[in-house]
Amino acid sequence: MLKLLRPAVTRILTPLGRALARRGISPNMVTAVGTIGTVAAALFFYPRGQLFPGSVVITIFVLADLLDGVMARMTGPGSLWGAFLDSTLDRVGDAGIFSGLVIWLMLDGQPVLAMVALFCLVAGAVVSYVKARAEGLGLTCDVGLVERPERLVVGLVAAGIGGLGVPYVLSGGLWLLAAGSAVTVVQRLLHVYHQASSSASRPLR
Questions:
Q1: 86 noted as active-site residue
Q2: Per-residue pLDDT of the chain (205 residues; tens, 9 = 90+)
Q3: Cα distance between residue 134 and residue 143, in whole Å
Q4: How many Å apart are CA 85 and CA 24, to the nearest integer?
Q5: Catalytic one among 65, 86, 90, 94?
Q6: Nearest by Cα to 69 from 84, 57, 86, 81
Q7: CA-based radius of gyration for the chain
Q8: Contact of 179 with 120, CB cutoff 8 Å
């Protein structure tokens, strides 16, 4: 569903991307700034229990993940380094967001929910790794219930609304995200298993 919104968001961000490109700002610079801002905001606001303002600031920086793609398409085919950097820093940003939540939940005396948030972080990393490893072996793995955009939306919305004092939203969002991430891992493993089983065996390095 979120993929359907990408063209509309791209149209909105295109003028900003064009203006930044004219000033010599590269997509990789936007990627780095977005990640640094995301991690800094998450580790500054969330451990203090400032979930709503933290989620708003993080959302602003997360949009850089779309903006760098817009800029890359403007300047021609994306580079291998740019694609690698973007994927790697996505993991760093996710780690910052959920680490901030884990710290706050532990300080707030909610160890069970902190473990759920930690599971969301680990499961999200596994979801991304399974796809990367499968594609590295020449297979496809573009399947799954909860991908990174969905993880970010659910996590940030749950944290933001929970920060306004609405009960059960944060806990419900994290449990939902944990379950969806676990299902996605299983979906991707099965998808890769079926492809690998139907392919001729070949030596791997």
A1: no
A2: 455 666 777 777 788 888 888 888 888 898 999 999 999 999 999 999 999 999 999 999 988 777 887 787 776 656 788 888 988 999 999 999 999 999 999 999 999 999 999 999 999 999 999 999 999 999 999 898 998 888 999 999 999 999 999 999 999 999 999 999 999 999 999 999 999 988 755 555 5
A3: 12
A4: 19
A5: 90
A6: 86
A7: 18
A8: no
Cα–Cα distance between 101 and 117 in angstroms, integer? 7
| Look-up of token digits 């969002």 | 173
Determine which helix (DSSP H) or strand (DSSP E) holds 107, and give its type and residue range. helix 80-107
Residue with tokens 């069970």: 112
Task: Report the chain's terminal Cα–Cα distance, integer Å.
Answer: 37
| Residue 145 DSSP symbol | S
Distance between CA atoms of residues 47 and 114, nearest Å: 12
Residue 2 CB neighbour total at 10 angstroms: 12
